[in-house]
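Methods — Computational structure assignment.
A single polypeptide chain was analysed. Its primary sequence is given first, followed by the predicted tertiary structure written as structure tokens.
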Amino acid sequence: MARKKKDPNEMSFLDHLEELRWHLIRSTMAVVIVGFVAFLMKDFIFDTVIFGPKKPDFPTYGVFCKLSKMLGFSEAFCSNEPLFRIQSRVMAGQFSAHIWTSIWAGFIVAFPYVLYEMWRFISPGLYENERKSSRGFILVASLLFFMGVLFGYYVVAPLSINFLGGYTVSPEVYNDIDLSSYISTVRAAVIACGLIFELPIIIYFLTKVGLVTPEILKKYRKIALVIVLIISAVITPPDVASQIIVAIPVLILYQFSIYISAYVLKREAKKAEKYAKSS
């Protein structure tokens, strides 16, 4: 039997919690269903996707190899030999990695639906004009997230794997990387970039509620630059070229967010002016 939708204006605090619970349940079910499909696609998920960035023929390395030759940098990306082996050192290591990788794959693929469920919970509390002005939120937020995921997978993950996997302190030490450590490196790069690319959406809503203005964003641009470089240093190898490669798109997103904030305020001013004339 279908649950009857209640009027948000007549709902108590417990009713809102109940409504949120169902949205979370449906979101979790979507992640689990997609994760189950990913679980069945083990060969593709691991051999092609997860272990792709460690293979010398990964497309990113070919691009970076050509760029490094053109710019006269080190040809570390031009190696044709695997940098390291991956091993599992605990009894349930591979099975555990299979389960958790499937769940994270489910979250990434089901991200638009998770956003949709969260939007369904939030939107009844908005005014009609606010709902209209926020049309396309799910599409834009999903596109930004997937752009960030692709950037993390094809740029940040290969940079990290190439540097960290090939780094040695002595010929006496062999790089046999633990499976969980390798997967966490790829996962951190992908998820972190996916969330970082949501910056314009975050700025849009912060501007809508009056917490952010273009002037504030411009005033603290230098501080934002430092923060971006710190984040780049955390999720990439400790070399300047890698940090710049990661920092550039984030700084572009920050500048784009300034334009978005200015656009929101300009539109709000027009609405206020129109309302004042009509009254």
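Note: Strands lie at 85-87, 176-178.
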